[in-house]
Amino acid sequence: MGDMFRSEEMALCQMFIQPEAAYTSVSELGETGCVQFRDLNVNVNAFQRKFVTEVRRCDELERKIRYIETEIKKDGIVLPDIQDDIPRAPNPREIIDLEAHLEKTESEMIELAQNEVNMKSNYLELTELRKVLENTQGFFSDQEVLNLDSSNRAAGDNDAAAQHRGRLGFVAGVINRERVFAFERMLWRISRGNVFLKRSDLDEPLNDPATGHPIYKTVFVAFFQGEQLKNRIKKVCTGFHASLYPCPSSHNEREEMVRNVRTRLEDLKLVLSQTEDHRSRVLATVSKNLPSWSIMVKKMKAIYHTLNLFNMDVTKKCLIGECWVPTKDLPVVQKALSDGSAAVGSTIPSFLNVIDTNEQPPTFNRTNKFTRGFQNLIDAYGVASYRECNPALYTCITFPFLFAVMFGDLGHGLILVLFGAWMVLCERKLARIRNGGEIWNIFFGGRYIILLMGLFAMYTGLVYNDVFSKSMNLFGSRWFNNYNTSTVLTNPNLQLPPNSSAVGVYPFGMDPVWQLADNKIIFLNSFKMKLSIIFGVLHMVFGVCMSVVNFTHFKRYASIFLEFVPQILFLLLLFGYMVFMMFFKWFSYNARTSFQPETPGCAPSVLIMFINMMLFKNTEPPKGCNEFMFESQPQLQKTFVLIALCCIPWMLLGKPLYIKFTRKNKAHANHNGQLTGNMELAEGETPLPTGFSGNEENAGGAHGHDDEPMSEIYIHQAIHTIEYVLSTISHTASYLRLWALSLAHAQLSEVLWQMVLSLGLKMSGVGGAIGLFIIFGAWCLFTLAILVLMEGLSAFLHTLRLHWVEFMSKFYEGMGYAFQPFSFKAILDGEEDE
After folding, report:
1. For this UniProt entry, which segments traverse the membrane (predicted)?
2. Does the pTM of the predicted model rise above 0.85?
3. What residue segments make up the domains of the chain, in order of their start?
4. Burial 430-463 (b: 16+ CB within 10 A, else e)
5. Separation CA 812–CA 806 (nearest Å)
6. Could you tell me whether strands 217-224 and 214-215 are parallel, antiparallel, or unpaired per DSSP bridges?
7. Which residues contact 423 (CB under 8 A, 6 or more apart)?
């Protein structure tokens, strides 16, 4: 089978690259994104590798870019989006130019930032001084001016003389508003109440020069007497980070000083404005190229990280690397290596050799934007073993179909279709959304799943004839009324016998007359319950049959007879037979027949019949009816049960006994010559999905059990047999969730219609119109929130469980590890998600 049905075939390759062409060659490989490198320097410390200096150089460039980006975002400049024109990794000359440009830009930004902080600090000091001078005008009176002495007088003798004459000194400044009360309390304590403090809160906040955050401050003037108290007050001001400013005691001197400060502030404001304009011009110029620079540096760093995985040969003239490559992409890799050598003009070409190995290769499933969502659902359970059958291909159909069985409503399915179609049609525009959040990313990643789920839900809604809990009479009901008008009006309940009140079958889906029937739930229960069992058995049979595909591919032909045959017989002879009896019952019993044993009243219960079949019991049928549907049914049922019971020891002992007998022959062959035996077995072998051995016979029968003791093999097989037998029963019952959720969804939709919307439809007049508008809005809200979102999520999770547990457990091992190629696109997308 092709690679569509299983993972890609992988090859372990060895590449030999000249050192001068290594950078460009790895850059070309990163653009292709189809090579997973192996680390050949596992025992070498990360700081002792060959290209650690270049990696540190890239780290320094990233640091500079982050600093510039922070400054750009601080100014509110929007960086351009370059998704459509992503630059390639820079060549060595471009790296030097880029480094010089970033160094120059960073130095200029640091210098501008430092100058701006200094000027803003000066501006803050001058602003505080102006506030002090303006607010202290009310602190002084004409009489106080004659008796006050400024704390900033230059002449010490006059100050001392003033103190002797009993004049008051003062200190003026500003302090943070939240520290005022503690500051005032401390002054009172150190002076024992001999300091007189006046203060005034500033109405407008000031800006911190370093951070730009607003600061609320208070202007204060402290009056005191004595030089010793003056020194104490200054120490307290220093401790509370208060800023002290000179304040003349003369009114005229203060006015003159205010005018000078205002002039200096205007000049400084002009300089700050010019500095801001220059900074904005520089940042705007840099912002045009910064995203490209960032991508180039990330690619360059990824290249050197990858080159650190290479090993240098003994002559120091060649780099050797090992990598996993999909065999389909080998020509692409060879072309990338030749392009990398040609880019630097290397005369010695690079070589790529495919080497043989017994290691288990990584699993790589090539996907597109449609299949990627379904593949992610499978990988969430476990990455497929190498080359085993991939369930994602079949999940594209079975997943939305089983979801729709539980979510069958034409109206609700249409809502999902519209939402999914919007995301699909506008996917290029929506893919550019970076900050949509995790929930949005999940919805957008599964847009094709949502679209298909909506389409299938619309189909099953047509089959159920259910549109927001109402039915459509598209083809005309096949039931008719035989009663006259008086009988209909006088009897609250009337029966319509199918032999006299029905003609033919409704062409598609459910007949709309069931919407009016009192036994609607009983009928739908029986119908949907049987339908869920039928779909469940078919789904499990398909899963068991898929194991044959794996056995054939890995040449484990003995497992077909020892595992698949007893498993499929056990499943079909019991539960497949039960499904057959459902169809046989539908076709055999008819209301129009005159033969009593074939009338609907004589139809036996399939469930009771199945229980009696397993317990070898009989149930007395009603008078005139037959216990069984056909004559040889009891003998056939006993035969099926006995064969199914024989399948249990077949599954339990078949494989261990086969391993026991084939192990002796292998031991004999190995004794004759281990080397020759391996060489013969290696010819044309297929790697194992779950083992590391390339031995074909291991793949065919032993399944990698050569080193296990027989006791463990018996125990292992016993666990698998018990698990399969019990899970066959439990998994069949598990599919009843299709019936349960479908019934719950239909009933919730009906309750919402009757309890909400029908109330508005019964209103009349202008008030009724307004009420209907409001009630319709509430009904839409509840429909979207409960029936579409909550019920849709519930049906999605149940469908996921049916695939993971009931379906994939029949053939899927999921013991592999994912193929993680060196890809620039994956690296950039991963960093954007973070």
Report:
1. 399-425, 446-464, 533-552, 564-587, 639-658, 769-790
2. no
3. 119-148+167-274, 370-487+511-661+713-810
4. beeeeeeeeeeeebbebbbbbbbbbbbbbbbbbe
5. 11
6. unpaired
7. 430, 443, 444, 447, 450, 451
**Distant-in-sequence, close-in-space partners of 689: CB < 8 Å, separation ≥ 6:** 360, 384, 385, 386, 387, 388, 550, 554, 813, 815, 816
Closest CA to 689 of 383, 385, 359: 385
d(C-alpha 265, C-alpha 122), whole Å: 9
Are the beta carbons of 204 and 257 closer than 8 angstroms?
Answer: no
What's the CA gap between 698 and 675, in Å, rounded?
A: 16
Question: Which residues make beta-bridge pairs with 665?
Answer: none
Residue 208 CB neighbours (<10 A): 14
The strand pair at 351-355 and 196-201 is best described as unpaired
How do residues 795-810 score in pLDDT, each as one tens digit?
Answer: 999 999 999 999 999 9
- Rounded Cα gap, residues 176 and 187, in angstroms: 16
351 sits in the region (left: phi over 0; alpha: psi -120 to 50; else beta) called beta
Residues 351, 15: Cα–Cα separation, whole Å: 5
Domain 119-148+167-274 CATH (choose: 3.30.70, 3.40.50, 2.60.120, 1.20.1440): 3.30.70
pLDDT surpasses 50 at 542: yes
Query: How far out from the chain centre does Cα 699 lie?
Result: 36
Residue ranges of the alpha helices (H) in 554-623?
Answer: 557-559, 565-571, 577-588, 606-615
